[in-house]
Amino acid sequence: MDIAQLLVFSSPVALAAIGETVSQKSGVINIGLEGTMLAGAFFGMLGSLTTHSPWIGLFCGVAVGITLSLISGWFCVKLDADQVVVGAAVNLLALGVTGTLFRARFGSSGQLLSVPKVPLFMGTDPVVLFMIASVPLMWLLLNKTGWGLAARAVGEAPKGAEAAGFSVDRLRMGAMAIGGAFGGLAGAYLSLGIAGSFAENMTAGRGFVAIAMVTFGRWKPPLVFLAALLIGYAESLQYVLQGRSSQIPYELLFALPYVLALAVLIAVGKGTMAPQALGLPYRRER
To answer: What is the pTM assigned to this prediction?
Structure first.
């Protein structure tokens, strides 16, 4: 299988998972990542279609991703709301809003669209290049910078981090913004880099798969990236098998990436050392 094709199919899950790694290392699990990707895909498509510029479309996707993540952060970090409930609400909101706007703009049955796709730069996809570069960059951010070490401390022992003079809320909001930017870019690339179009609920669970890959990759950007490549391989394999007139039912091929994600979680999920404060709201002592 062509390595370039593998990287392209892996990019949406890989980008979302790398950003989610930063968020989870600070102690916040963004269940709304699926909705963030879907919103990024829709508004990225809309921006590209309106301006005839896929670059503006990508920017729109990133902006929407950051906005949704900060809204989630306000409830989860500032108001101490349950992270799972807030994430589920974001997913439902994104599904409803994108579906309603899509049908209102392009017809009740949905119109087949063709939007400007991300052009190649010197024969290479720039978003794929950014994805590859983001792996060492996010590793360096988390392990070799003061901000990253503080964010990790917040994810492990928020009380101790605050006692050391760090703002738990600011660090977690910043980490969520990074995760939202990657999630929005992942969704925008799905519509502008792969499909060249948009369809309702086109993310089809990729956000949840990305969250699973963070666990599979042990919250380490290089391992998370390799885990996403495995899912990308499974996704591209279904098209290869379909093209060869395989006798395997289409529904089974379509489910292959999700079955693989579930299988690896069952196989390696036990014994993983998640950040100690992951998913737990921090209530400052008054």
So the answer is: 0.91
